[in-house]
């Protein structure tokens, strides 16, 4: 039994319809927290910094400072002490949460050769290792309650590895496999797992400011970046929907009863899931390459005689 495995917690009686949302300070997490609060959920808004996120959430929902249906919890997914303290605060506030929504995440822009290893490590710590640690800390209480749903927010990049964002694609793929594995483990205890494949939404993560950019615009991949940058921005602008649309999809997902659900939220995600199911991998490769304007196979070889 691992040293940090806890099955000895004193757990208060669970509050019905309580949900933990990580990354509730802004973007999809903020919109989801606002929506679920308005729908009557007790929302535990987990944020790296409670100031100013929680005040903004209170303003957006009209919740008073002492409203016990909107609870702020400090959570930095890269900090083990913060994760343990957050889990304890959550259990103290609501007992076993019904919903646990792993929404917080970071992205990265750059080719594999351009992206430093420490960014790969930060990507996996934030998007996988931290969420796994939080889940492990909360599962004993959720098992004891005999109900609940763990929601993992994936991305189109987790369905298909996308060029120039390999760490993000890799981590979202890993997130999906984690969720599938865990669903098989926790369903006998009455806990369901849902993977939401999010389409494109208008938040910081799809902007230069909201991502860690390792692109070398003058290096060997300059030709890729030139076209991808132009086409990517245009496509994102066209596809990006309001975060409130995602929040509606999440609210629906929390009402599911099935032990395991994997579903798209947004038309672009729905189309990609369908295409990925029916098209051979090589066709998907060429489609994505052509859409992004990436040169064809061998086009950037040096002029060699061999
Ligand atoms: N927007 C889209 O088009 C889209 C598409 C597919 C999937 N997604 C996924 O949706 C989720 C939410 O993204 P978003 O669009 O809302 O992006 P966002 O606006 O950039 O928000 C990211 C959230 O994650 C939090 N976060 C980052 N690092 C953290 C850490 N170490 N510990 C705790 N929280 C941390 C941020 O907190 P701070 O405010 O403290 O930085 C912020 O609340 C992500 O998992 C993303 O991959 C988004």
TrEMBL record:
Keywords, comma-separated and alphabetical: Oxidoreductase
Gene3D superfamilies: NAD(P)-binding Rossmann-like Domain
Name of a matching Pfam family: adh_short
Keyword hit for Oxidoreductase: yes
Domain of life according to the entry: Bacteria
Family according to the record: Belongs to the short-chain dehydrogenases/reductases (SDR) family.
Name of the molecule in the record: SDR family oxidoreductase
Biological classification of the source: Bacteria, Bacillati, Actinomycetota, Actinomycetes, Mycobacteriales
